[in-house]
Amino acid sequence: MLKRLGIVGFGASAIGFINGLIESGKVKDYRITVLERGKDYSHNTISGVRMDGKIFISHGMGGEIYIPLEIQAKTVEFYLKFSGYTPTVDKRVGIVNYLKSFERDGRKIEFGESFSDEEIYKRFYHHGFEPVKSYFFHLGTDILKETNKNIYEYFSSFENIEFLFGTTVEDVEFGPPHRVHTNRGDFEFDELVIAVGRSGHRLMERLKEKYPQLVRPNQFVDIGVRYELPNHVMDPFSDMYEVKVRYRTKTGYICRIFCQNPAGKVTLEKYEDFTTVNGYSDSLHKTENTNFAILVTTRFTEPFKDPTGYGVNLAKLANILAGDKEKVILQTYGDFKEFRRTKRLGRVHPTLDSESYILGDANLVFPSKIRESLVDFVENLEKVIPGASYFDNLLYAVEVKFYTNKFLNDIVEGLHVVGDCSGWTRSIQYATSMGYMRAVGMKIQSL
Ligand SMILES: Cc1cc2nc3c(=O)[nH]c(=O)nc-3n(C[C@H](O)[C@H](O)[C@H](O)COP(=O)(O)OP(=O)(O)OC[C@H]3O[C@@H](n4cnc5c(N)ncnc54)[C@H](O)[C@@H]3O)c2cc1C
């Protein structure tokens, strides 16, 4: 008899899971029901209009699990093929060259590689940085809808896979059998995949509350600033998508560059009762500045259990000093380093609108261990990126990256919590590959 398998959500990780079942031949053992909240295949995150469609191959970027490079390459190949790209050479040229060769309507896939230049790689390495190598393939926002449609049609061609769109899962009781309550009635499954992404946070919060034994407490929070400097400083690295580096500062804390936006803008990220900073780049409106986050990873151990609260309170402190819960502090790097409040800006003009910040002193916000780590990082960055520590470069405080609690698989029989809702991934690549690895039965290790 066929086993009943329920899949909640039809995003990247569900796609990886179903593909894993198909490739391993296990698909024939199941009757599969996909329960997706969107009203049809084009209403999931993957087809989202704002989605950039960049797929990376990298270790340590996009998730906190180990995904072997050959699995990552397979995932890229899968998306390329379903996006209408075809290879122009065979795999003997090496996997990256093979993937780079894919074309659609005579146009090569947009490809980028960080630290491909050996000299640059060595320079960073020599100065104590850990350069994170990565390759990226840019499918393009416009193509993603079609990609999704092709994948959906392929999966639908299996007669034992059915899709129920417009079905929101409201609650689950783990078994087996697993009972799933939806707006369209209840279902029972022998195996269950939960793949609801970040947008499924309501369901996940409910499950975490009901099953605390399946949740690993989080110990981390990343705290720092959004840093803004002239484009010309970063120009020598423009062929890299992002200068992704980590550095062990003199305090022992690891500091890293995150979310780089060439010719981009700094923006606010508003929460219910506090505000932090973020950045983005707009393909139409280019600015003269590049921004990126500089984040210090802070890890807490017993008895302190609330890293998120720690980050929130620092963000609130910055808002209090800025005089408004919707404002942040802006300071020049030179003033920050010399413990002076900024009263006047220099050559670098902020891209955040002037209503959203107050010129101030972020030294009043950060505990000294974090402050020292930030300064040490920028001073060392100057050795590899001349201009990184210009006096008038700007820093906005604070930027915080919260970690979600991680879901433990392997405790409940026949349960797979995959993708971003599991807390282990945060990218198309890692979510898809995690789904794939669970389906084929590969062991998944945390980083
Ligand atoms: C604007 C934006 C741009 C991004 N750009 C990139 C990028 O360029 N490259 C990259 O690697 N990553 C990008 N990401 C991140 C990437 O989208 C996610 O990491 C990835 O899609 C996670 O896959 P997932 O399967 O975990 O969740 P998702 O792909 O989000 O899929 C979850 C699915 O579950 C459904 N769902 C949610 N709750 C329920 C429920 N209760 N019942 C039924 N169905 C439910 C949702 O409708 C959705 O279809 C971007 C994210 C956003 C928001």
Question: Which key phrases capture this entry?
Answer:
single chain; alpha+beta; 447 residues; 8-stranded mixed β-sheet
**Major β-sheet annotation:** 8 strands, mixed
Lateral strand order in the biggest sheet = 7-16-17-20-15-23-21-22
Class by SSE composition: alpha+beta
Number of helical regions: 11
Q: Strand percentage, roughly?
A: 25-35%
- Strands, count: 25
Q: Point out poorly predicted stretches.
A: none
Could you tell me how far the N terminus lies from the C terminus, measured between alpha carbons in angstroms?
Answer: 38 Å
Silhouette: globular
Report the helical percentage. 25-40%
Ligand inventory reads:
flavin-adenine dinucleotide
Radius of gyration: 23 Å
Mean pLDDT: 93
